[in-house]
Amino acid sequence: MTEIAFPSAPAACRRIALCLQYDGSAYCGWQRQPRDPSVQEVLEAAIAQLDPGGPATVVAAGRTDSGVHAAGQVVHFDCHGPIPAHRWPAALNGRLPASIRVRGAAAVPSEWHACFSASYRRYRYTVYNARIPNLFLAPWSWHRYQLRLDEARMGEALEEMLGEHDFAAFERAGSSRSHSRTTLQEVQVVRRGDLIEVELQASGFLYGMVRLVMGQLVAVGEGRLSLEAFRRRWRQQARDEVKEAAPPQGLCLLRVGYPEPVFPQAAWYDCQPRYLLEGSDAPPAAPSQSQH
Question: Which residues in the chain belong to E strands, given as ranges?
Fold first, then answer.
């Protein structure tokens, strides 16, 4: 009697969420590009080595630009292999370069989405406001040494932006969004000696928004741009007047929030270290008169 071999049933598809960090210096950004290395490309290649049902497409909560870092990026992918969720971080970290680390993993429902399920994204931008350059700060901050920044004026400028508005003035060309409205939920400007940390939290960010905001905000802090001019530019969507974007290395995707927590707090909440510098080498104060 001939034995009939029946094909084995395919393994059930599971959705896995990851919390990861990366040093964006060597990458063209999160999203896969034709020529330059991306974080997405490297992560997908590592997953493909572990999942027999691959290759998997990894979806991120936010698409960071070239050179921008992440302390708590969240992504998801679908897999068919037997690896349990809690073993994915160790398995991936053994195959990823040192510039990308997985800090947590969790099994999530099939309808859960790293981008669309998120309730907020929070970015931190670090400015080093001292005369003397610092080698250890250079990869993670913008060195502005010409004038002492007025952090109180910078905070005042940001607070007026809270709420839902059209932020077309701070959107780079090439965006695929159908509109430029978003809700800015929280803002914070803190000086720690020669370092200024600016944090922005929103339901979502436009393409290039944080770096364009920071370029204008530093001009306000240096007294080169008045609060009135800053306010007029974004309220009137005067994109042609917003010409300076802050460099990428000072920007970090700090964390992504969800209605129901996905990872332990230690894995995602506030994982970008803060530098503590003794003494102060701040430049002279900004001029009192602002220009329009």
Answer: 14-22, 59-60, 69-79, 100-108, 120-128, 142-143, 163-166, 181-192, 195-202, 251-257
- Please give the Cα distance from 38 to 201 (Å, whole number): 25
Catalytic residue, from 51, 65, 150, 194: name it. 65
> For this structure, is 65 an active site residue?
yes
What mean pLDDT comes out for the span 71-91?
96
Q: What is the pLDDT of residues 176-231, one digit of tens each?
A: 677 889 999 999 999 999 999 999 999 999 999 999 999 999 999 999 999 999 99
Residues 6 or more apart in contact with residue 9 via CB below 8 angstroms: none
Confidence bin at 248 (pLDDT 50/70/90): very high
Task: Give every CB contact of residue 129 below 8 A, 6+ residues apart in sequence.
Answer: 144, 145, 148, 149, 191, 194, 195, 196, 282, 283
